[in-house]
Amino acid sequence: MAHAGYAIELKGISKAFGPVQANKDIHIAVPKGTIHGIIGENGAGKSTLMSILYGFYRADSGEIFINGKLTTIPDSQSAIRAGIGMVFQHFKLVQNFTVLENVVLGAEEGALLAGSLSKARKVLSDLSREYELDVDPDAVIEDLSVGHQQRVEILKALYRQADILILDEPTGVLTPAEADHLFRILKGLRDQGKTVVLITHKLREIMETTDNVSVMRRGTMVGTVKTSETSPEELAELMVGRKVLLEVEKTPAMAGKTVLKVEDLRVRDEHGVERLKGVSFEIRAGEILGIAGVAGNGQSELLEALGGIARATGRVELNGVELPLSGKGADGQSRRAAGIAHVPEDRQALGLIMDFTAWENVAFGYHNAPEYQKNGLFMDNDALRADTERKMERFDVRPPIPTLAAKSFSGGNQQKIVVAREIERNPDLLLVGQPTRGVDIGAIEFIHKQIVALRDQGKAILLVSVELDEIRSLSDRIAVMFDGRIMGFRDPETTDERELGLLMAGMTGKGEAA
Amino acid sequence: MERLPKWADVVLVPLISLLLAAVIAAVVIVAIGQDPWEAITVMVQGSVMNSYGWGYTLYYATSFMFTGLAVTVAFHASLFNIGGEGQAQLGGLGVALCCLMIPWPHWSLALIGATVAAAAFGAAWAAVPAYLQARRGSHIVITTIMFNYIAAAFLIFMLVDVLRPDGQMDPATANFPETVALPTLNEIPVVNLLFTSKVPANITLFIALGMAVVVWALLWRTRLGYAIRAFGKSEAAAKYAGISPFGIIMVAMLISGGLAGMMAINNVMGEAGRLLQNSASGAGFIGIAVALMGRNHPVGVVLAALLFGFLFQGGAELGLWTKIPIEMRIVVQGLVILFTGALDMMVRMLLTWVFNLLRGGRAARGAV
After folding, report:
1. What residues of chain B lie within 8 A of the CB of A307, using their CB?
2. H or E stretch including A423?
3. How far does the CA of residue A170 sit from the closest CA of chain B (Å)?
4. How crowded is residue B283: how many other Cβ atoms within 10 Å of its Cβ?
5. Domain limits for position B87
6. Which CATH number goes with the domain that contains A265?
7. ipTM of the modeled complex
8. Are residues A71 and A200 in the same domain?
9. Is A53 within the bounds of a domain?
10. Phi and psi for B32 in degrees, rounded to 5?
């Protein structure tokens, strides 16, 4: 018997995609007026479950109760009618529409737009006041920050009178301050009696925000606990099925000679806007330099300039040899030949060809390597497949099938393929961008170990990450970037999150704006 | 949405598309008061039921293989080469100049020379749009279409004012010397056991089949092919890997244009024996449909080229032996292109739905 005190109750939900059982007999009950976290590794079935709830998929079996009432949800319109709103990881906004137009889109009333718009304007201003959801209704979406765009998504759901709000990995693109603001909004919504389901893989968010948390692993629900009665360690163990090291184990750096020397590096984007405004630093052998900063402050351009993707000016020396920054010799092939390996920030857009097989991706960037050639004319696909099998075994890529397309692997395993490819080249300098973005906890631990191991072999590593915890635990030195400049260098042992946070926001130690 | 098994995607989808095209074509034939069964009988009789019909079907198919492969190579670099028609006409010019200006002692040498000339002229014609795309970002679809018109006008100029022998009325070159005439299938030992009467299909067929193998090896067995395919999937990723976009666009289009140009050895050198106006007669455009239907794979291209060869020859037979006007073949071709190209997704979605239904039924029974 369903309980009327539950906003959502799922009973025995199962869903299979071909041979893959994405959800297996899932039971979950979300009490009204609470924030309920759902965590699990990538591929644990969180998104499938929510897609069933939002009418994108139909469950093979099982029952859905909304506010105690048995409900079928064949499409998203029915989900909206049942009072469910969803905020996706990738926003579904029309970029060149205003906030108001986006909110009304699909919920227009009458033939003329004006009526709907003026009604929406009033509702919006009420909602803004009530929940700290202040957004200028006449602003065009593409001019808004990511955090504000997310608020528009929430407004869209509330405008459709959602009582239950589902957010899928909402903080992936937010600054720490924006994330805090989001959580204040969510708590406000809860206090007004709304129910919030928060899907995330970040344990800290779960601990800080939720009332209850359900843990999923490999398509099953392993347990639901009160957040106040659990710990991050316990949750991590539930998620992965074994004890997990949340801290990186590493010895102090034994830094040697300077490997990379960067002086006054500048990059302009295609519109001629300077994105990297004169950056200088050095990395020594056996050292990890971590670049902290909110996404979009020049870190990507730094990696691209060093990786031979973007044109730059300034001076870059690798082992005392100057590298060309534009024209001939400023390309990915030359950089690899010089001894720079690059794990790019966006593995799906840059690091892999998603339609290619794993073994084709192992050759990516190294398709000219002599060991992958035969008879002078052809690529040695057999050698490549054998090499891929070896790499997959060493880096524990699952499933270890070289002929599988890259897109068929989970995020963590895709990243392992990229990391294996780049690290196994034994580079002098490794560029790593967001090594663990969208990667499950088990794989994070593994990838971190690999990076530290490479450092311990006396290689130089440039680590760019928006995850402050990752930067702090891996780096031997931290540089903070803001608006295309390095705001300062810090020692991870002596600095704290507050100090780094201020630098990330463009404040120097004394508190004045830079 | 779950995906189709590969065999269904490769075999079933085109077959159903074809069937749908045939059904609609039958409706059209009924609508103009003719008998669709008679039509299909005449088409099959005239194109694949005897060696004479095959001789024509294979002749057309040969041309379509070249242009289909041309579209395929460019497509793998994510370039839509619509300019096969113009490139094939320029290839014809290359063949004509080569055959008329050099006194070849034997057709085999002439064939090598003409092949190189055809490929070079076709590639040169593709080079300009390629350069404009690679350096200036001018869209290759627009520029290659425009180059088709320029090619047509240029060919008319060449045929009327430059290459036409004095006293000849039609805009065409002089006949090529007898020594460069390519052996037709009925003149080739062993093959002539099958083809007893004079047919237009000639030795170029084997070059086309050879090129299908070469294209396959190029795309899936060489570094260049790897780079082309990687670039075609993602330009950003290709830059990360150090693959030069400029280089790939140029090389892929040169190969594509070269293949389209090579078509001319079939029709200009192998069949007509001189260069006529509008020599490519639409084969460049049919190559697009052939590549689409052949899933941009050389094996598929060869099969699709045979199908279009059949439609071409069968359509001509319709005009000869029935009251159905010859334009009917354009209708049928259009329908095939519509269903296999444009409405491909529709068929695939329907089929996916059917498969999921079957699979769901099986899973439900398995669960009991």
Report:
1. 240
2. helix A411-423
3. 25
4. 28
5. 61-299
6. 3.40.50.300
7. 0.85
8. yes
9. yes
10. -90, 15
Is A308 in contact with B242 (Cβ distance < 8 A)? yes
Q: What share of chain A is helix, strand, coil (3-state, %, to 5)?
A: 35, 25, 40
Q: Based on the structure, what is the number of domains in chain B?
A: 1
Contacts of B217 in chain A (CB under 8 A): 378
Q: B100-122 in b/e burial notation, b at 16+ Cβ within 10 A? A: beeebeebeebbebbbebbbbbb
Q: Which residues pair with A223 in a beta bridge?
A: A215
Contact: A379, B223; criterion CB under 8 Å: yes
In this prediction, residue A511 has a pLDDT band, given cuts at 50, 70 and 90, of: very low
A155-158: long-range pairs with CB below 8 Å, 24+: A155/A99, A155/A103, A155/A124, A155/A127, A156/A85, A156/A102, A156/A103, A157/A85, A157/A86, A157/A87, A158/A85, A158/A127, A158/A131, A158/A133
pLDDT recorded at residue A4: 64
Whether residue A371 contacts residue A383, with contact meaning beta carbons closer than 8 Å, is answered with yes
Query: Cβ contacts of residue B169 below 8 Å, gap of 6+?
Result: none
CA dihedral defined by A407, A408, A411, A417, rounded to 10 degrees? -80
Tens-digit pLDDT profile for residues B84-143: 999 999 999 999 999 999 999 999 999 999 999 999 999 999 999 999 999 999 999 999
Helix ranges (DSSP H) in chain B: 6-7, 13-31, 36-48, 51-76, 84-101, 107-131, 140-157, 204-221, 223-233, 235-240, 245-264, 283-293, 298-321, 328-337, 344-367
Q: Does B241 touch chain A (CB under 8 A)?
A: yes
Residues A156 and A58 in one domain: yes
Contacts A–B by Cβ distance under 8 A: 72
Chain A residues inside the 8 Å CB shell of B228 = none
Domain housing A265:
258-351+426-504
**Which amino acid is residue B146, in one-letter code?**
M
CA atoms within 13 A on the CB side of A277: 11
A349 CB neighbours in chain B (<8 A) are 234, 236-237
The torsion region of residue B325 among left (phi > 0), alpha (psi -120 to 50) and beta comes to: beta
pLDDT tens digits for range A353-400? 999 999 999 999 999 999 999 988 899 999 999 999 999 999 989 889
CB–CB of B237 and A352 under 8 A?
yes
Give A337→chain B minimum CA distance, Å.
Answer: 11
User: DSSP label at A513?
Assistant: B
* Partner-chain contact B241 A367, CB within 8 Å: yes
In the numeric block, which tokens belong to residue B330?
A: 């354009």
Beta strands in A72-186 (DSSP E): 84-87, 164-168
- β-strands A429-433, A477-482 pairing: unpaired
Q: What's the number of domains chain A is made of?
A: 2
Report the residue of B224, B226, B359 to disrupt the A interface, i.e. the one with the largest count of A CBs within 10 Å.
B226
The Cα B350–Cα B62 span in angstroms is: 33
The beta-carbon neighbor of A350 closest among B217, B237, B244 is: B237
Domain assignment of residue B211, yes or no: yes
Residue B318 lies in a domain: no
Residues A321 and A236 grouped into a single domain:
no
Q: Is residue A363 part of a domain?
A: no
Predicted TM-score (pTM) of the model is 0.80
Query: Is A410 among the domain residues?
Result: no
A264 and A220 in a single domain? The answer is no
State the DSSP string of B59-90. HHHHHHHHHHHHHHHHHHTT----THHHHHHH
Same domain, A133 and A196: yes
d(CA A229, CA A154): 29
Interchain proximity B242–A360, CB inside 8 Å: no
Could you say which residues from 195 to 234 on chain B have a Cβ atom under 8 Å away from some Cβ of chain A? 217, 221-223, 226-227, 229-230, 233-234
Based on the fold, state whether residues A22 and A141 are members of the same structural domain: yes
Q: Is residue A407 part of a domain?
A: no
Residue ranges in chain B whose pLDDT is less than 50: 1, 366-368
